[in-house]
Amino acid sequence: MVTPAALTFRRLHGLFCVYKPPGVHWKLVRDTIETNLLKGVNAAPPLALPHRVRFLAEPTSRTEEPTAVTLTATSVPALSKHPLVTGPEFQNIRVGVGHRLDVTSSGVLVLAVGAGNKVLDELYKTRVTRDYTLECEFGTATSDFSDTGRVVEKSTYDHITVDKLEKVLAMLEGANQKALRVFSNVDMSSQEAYELAVRGLLGPDGKSAPILTGLRCIHFQPPNFTLEVQCLNETQKYLRKVVHEIGLELRSTAVCRGVRRTRDGLFTSRDALTRNHWSAADIMQAIKQHRRSKKTENHTQNQTKTPVMQTSEEGLIQVKVEEMSS
């Protein structure tokens, strides 16, 4: 018989995402969620204890003389099945982690429970892009390209304008677009390459060097500026190095003060659960919402394909009617 705890665990199979705060290791986030899920699943009410027939002796008073013992058949609960004897039903729940974030970075972190771990492995193999917001500052260079590293150089930045910055960003984006075509292993003059580009699936086959598919400045107030980045196969250290190289291209220096992931594939910061919502009930609701949104997306794609076919058929019928009338 399936227990309430097992039924609760079945509802947790799937993908969800949380918001990892800066300064916290991703392993601590995973361990905290595993602990909360264990508490939530094992908190389900247990099944009623099974009863067994026992032959018990009837009590006798002290005044009565000892005679033959009288046994009575009695149904008693099997204490060997009691939760205090057997312990919690679930001792371990494995939570898988998707594209990881280092300690100083923050943002969307995709996690998986149960059968969702298989889907998470497939997510690694797909060409999904990730979005980041980089908080940057001109005038400083450090040993590890972050604001916490050892300062190795100071420079001026008064000559930098937003137009000069955008020219450098456009140059970097163009170079990465060329690398995207090189790593795609597809003939750029073929119909396959055109169809992949239209569907947004043109990308490296498997692992490759980091590629920036989009790069733009969304805030510029020297010495501070903010970049929005779309990328593939990146690391947070690589993104900080890109900011350093942008500073060098502008005849200055730059350091990255913060890396925040805002999207990982289908998951965005709006879907991410904050620290106060890392409970089993909230995670179950997030997994359910992801399944519903995925079904809606698949249904929408099917609906968009159907009208195109109907329109083409109606157009052919209209042409035939005009030919017959002429």
UniProtKB/TrEMBL annotation:
Domain Pseudouridine synthase II N-terminal: 91-236
UniProt-annotated stretches for the region Disordered: 290-314
Biased composition (Polar residues): 299-313
GO BP annotations, alphabetical order: pseudouridine synthesis; RNA processing
An MF annotation (GO) of this entry: pseudouridine synthase activity
InterPro entries: PsdUridine_synth_cat_dom_sf, PsdUridine_synth_N, Trub2
Similarity-based family: Belongs to the pseudouridine synthase TruB family.
Name listed for the protein in its UniProt record: Pseudouridine synthase II N-terminal domain-containing protein
Organism in which the protein naturally occurs: Oryzias javanicus
Lineage of source species: Eukaryota, Metazoa, Chordata, Craniata, Vertebrata
